[in-house]
Amino acid sequence: MEALRTYFNQFVQLSDAEWDDFKACMSKETVPKKGLLLEEGEKCNFIAFIQEGAFRFYTVKKGEESITAFFFAGDFVTNYRSFLTNKPSNHYIEALQDAVILKINLQQLQQLYNKHKTIERLGRLIAENLYLVVANRLDAFMFETPTERYEQLVKRGSKLLSEIPQYMVASYLGIKPETLSRIRARK
Amino acid sequence: MEALRTYFNQFVQLSDAEWDDFKACMSKETVPKKGLLLEEGEKCNFIAFIQEGAFRFYTVKKGEESITAFFFAGDFVTNYRSFLTNKPSNHYIEALQDAVILKINLQQLQQLYNKHKTIERLGRLIAENLYLVVANRLDAFMFETPTERYEQLVKRGSKLLSEIPQYMVASYLGIKPETLSRIRARK
DNA sequence: GCAATTCGTTGACCAAAGTCAATAAAGGAG
DNA sequence: CTCCTTTATTGACTTTGGTCAACGAATTGC
């Protein structure tokens, strides 16, 4: 649990009472490799903190899988859109390896928001943060070519390149595996 | 000001005391047509509610203007990324017509967050909402062709089609004016 | 109201990514 | 270890949007 508290600390300092309340809401779960944490059509009523393992977040559009995000140990994993809107997910969340997560559900989180102003603030800061993440990804798709997006991964030394099969990286970059292969070939 | 309170009401009910505090922070400004509300390189330390007029939010990439968003009366206008990160903006905000806005700055907003739990919540709900907006736009760029993005505008009866010159709509859709012209011509 | 700019359309050509197919390389299951 | 499936690469060809240029239509400024 300490990893989670460390994660929160970058946003706000929770008092022991607040943290105790938060902890009390988290329930541990395991997901086996290739297991689905969320299926298309389900409402995502949880946010989960990844203690071990990794997930891919993908949707099926026009008959093929398209990966929107990867989540690793130390990240939150959820379909935030479904969670916020309470509408069915159009994405799947699948474990890439055996995983251990700490889950909190919507109702519990709302109670924490009501009870503790600092947790309400934490929620705001996390929402703001997620805004920045998706805004950056939008920029990458609007202003960069596939080659430039790939080069960003290389430049940032992204763990995707070492831990994720290339055809999934291609999907994440919004291109076909053949194209990524060619981008890598012309150096 | 009532339009603003109505806007807030879709998220939370502010008490009269909270609303009075909020109102006290808003300052009215006018921006002439083609005037810049924000320049590239400036830090965006405000959020503004548009009473009258419209704005375009654009950046210059690889030597040409690229429009990320339009804002109309009843919307908030800000560079939310710059506002949240306190880093210089890489976008301009330009008035498309003479405009009247209500501005609040970062320091004032933070004081309101500290003072009123309900306003803290309002901030969270607005951040969550902006997340959804940009996530939807990301989907449009990841999963739809330019033609499909244009057809969405038509289907939703977007006011962009009636109020914004076509070359700006093209930029917003991420394509060249020639391409939008051809999309409209075929069928 | 007229001239000058800006905007929208169209055509010919180009570049980049997709498609389809063949094959090589890598990984897993038994 | 070996076979079988999955993944990565390469080639030939197609598709889509971009580029450059010309021209007509619409705005705007004086």
Low-confidence stretches of chain A: none
> How many helices of chain A in DSSP terms?
9
Q: Output the CATH topology of one domain in chain A.
A: Jelly Rolls
Average pLDDT of chain A, rounded to a whole number, is 96
- Gross morphology of chain A is globular
Structural category of chain A is: alpha+beta
CATH arch. level architecture of one domain in chain A: Sandwich
Question: Could you explain the architecture of this structure?
Answer:
The structure is a homodimer of 187-residue chains. Chain A is α+β, with helices and mostly antiparallel strands. Chain A has a domain of 114 residues: Jelly Rolls. Chains A and B meet through helix 3 and helix 5 of A and helix 3 and helix 5 of B. Chain A binds a DNA duplex (30 and 30 nucleotides) through helix 9.
List the keywords.
DNA-binding; four-stranded antiparallel sheet; Jelly Rolls; about 190 residues; alpha+beta; 9 helices; homodimer
